Amino acid sequence: MAAEKRGSFGTEVIWDRLSDYQRWFEPAFKDYLRSRSVAGADNYPAGSSMSAECLELITDLALRGGKRQRVAFLAETTKLFNGEVPPSKLLDAAISVELLQTHLLIHDDIFDDAPLRRGQPSTYAAYKELYPDDTRLSRSLAILAGDIAAYLAIQVITDSQELTPDEANSIIAIQTKAGLNTFHGQIFDFERDRHSRMADERLYELADYKAVRSSTWAPMRIGLVLAGADTTTNQNRIFQYARAVGIAGQLQDDYLGLFGDESTLGKSTTADLAEGKRTLMINHTLEHCLSQESNRLESILKQRGATESEAEWVRWLIRKYKSDNYLIERMKHWADQAQREAESWQDLDKAAIKFFSAMANWFIKRTY
What we know:
Helix content is 74%, strand content 1%. The chain has 16 helices and two strands.
C-alpha cells in the first residue's frame, strides 16, 4: 500500500488518500476477479458460455470507476485503533466489501430499470442488449449475476488463508447483517414512494438501512475486528459517526440525482424523478407548494417516466420553495455531526481521526 500522508487534512487531501487506496487495491481486486472467471474446478462448468459472460459483466462493473471509500473506511478504522494489519489480510476483507457493493448495485439497477451505472450500461441493461428478444432471461440472468457477486463476497472470506477462524466468522456475520439491512432498506424505499409524504426522520431511517449499513458501518465494523479492538465498547461510538456521515452522503446523492452534472454523475438527472422517488427535496416541496402545483408534481411522480421538460419544471418548483436549500442545510447538519463525533475520539489514533473528520466534509463537497 502507498505510504500514508500525515499532517493536516483538507477535503482535497481525501482525494489523494482515496487514490492511494485505489492504486493498492485495484490490481489485486482485478487479479481476484480474473481468478474467479476461469472455467472448471470450483468456479463454473467449462461448457457454460453464459457463466463466463456473467462473470465478465460482474468484473466489468466491479472494476468500473468507484472511489473505493469503503476500502478506505475499512483500512482507516484499523489505523484508528492502532491495528497493525498485514495488507494481505486487509485485502481479503476489502474485496468482500466491494463485492457486496457490486451485488447491491446490480440489484438496485434491476429494481430501477436503470440504463446506466457509472456512465456505462448497467448489468441489467447489458443483458437486455445481449438478449433483446427474451425479457425474462435478461432479467433472470441479471438477478443471478447480483446473487453470484454476493456469494463471492462471502467466499473470499471463507477461502482466506490470512484470517483467523474467529475473524472470518465475525466478518461473515457483519456482511450478512449488512446485506439483510440493505434489503429491508430497499423494501422501505419502495414503501416510501407509495406514500404522499414520509416524515423526515423516516427518510433518515431509510438512508440508514439502505446505504449506511453496507457502505460505512459494515466496513468500519470489519476494520474494528481486524484491529483486534474491543467491539463491545467501541461499536456504538463508530456507529454514530458511520450513520451521520452515511446519511449526509445519501442526501448528497439525492441532490445530485436532480441537480448534478450528467457527464460526471454517470446517469441521467431525470432518472430519480422518472422512478417516482420521493426524496427529502420532493417531500419538502409537496409540503409547501400550492395545491395546483402539488397536483402536477404528484402526477409526474406517479406516471413513472418524467421527461426532461417535466424535470426542469420540478427543479424550478424545488428552487421556488427553497427545498434545495433545505436539503443542503440538513446535509450539512449530518456532516457536522459526523465531524464532531470523529473529533471526540481523542483516545484514538490522531492521523486516522483527521481522516474521518475531513471525510465528513468531503462527503458533501465531493464531485463525481
